[in-house]
Amino acid sequence: DSGVTQTPKHLITATGQRVTLRCSPRSGDLSVYWYQQSLDQGLQFLIQYYNGEERAKGNILERFSAQQFPDLHSELNLSSLELGDSALYFCASSVGGAVNIQYFGAGTRLSVL
Amino acid sequence: DQQVKQNSPSLSVQEGRISILNCDYTNSMFDYFLWYKKYPAEGPTFLISISSIKDKNEDGRFTVFLNKSAKHLSLHIVPSQPGDSAVYFCAASEIQGAQKLVFGQGTRLTINP
After folding, report:
1. With bands split at pLDDT 50, 70 and 90, how would you rate the model's confidence at B21?
2. What would the pLDDT profile of B22-41 be if each residue is shown by its tens digit?
3. Cα nearest neighbour of B99 on chain A
4. Do B43 and A42 lie within an 8 Å CB cutoff?
């Protein structure tokens, strides 16, 4: 158990809809990262938050947004969903600093039908 | 532009023998490297890491070697056990600035009894 909790485990929805994925980081970790793993691609970085503030952005679509709340949990919002958004979405957390070991949750499998 | 490459999609090794997984990178700004192991339906699990100031790091049966001049790292597992069968991802990051992990495509390791 990595200590990172993601909900829900599975999500099935239709094109055009909006969903919210939730992540609770390990106790004490201030950084939260979101990654996407599609069938034909490896893990791709989406966005990072550190102590409530956006720290870095990757190839995140404009239809996607995220935030980190005062209790440090994070949510990834995906809107106007398309078939190609079907993927595994992972959240990771780390203490930050020179030793950048990120601990991953079990992921949310999103299926857009 | 794939900055981290794992050129072997799969590897099969006899139980008890050494497993060697390889990884190449192109970005000379990377200074922290990690290996993750992933089972189906689970998130990546951190295995071992190495900073660019070292050329070797050992943790039990796992050893990571870093050759900065060749921009190459490898993971050695000795002795290999059936429970080691999984997909292994190499990842790299910059300690300063954005600490996103850049992942390779993964190598599926199968340990045969």
Report:
1. very high
2. 999 999 999 999 999 999 88
3. A100
4. no
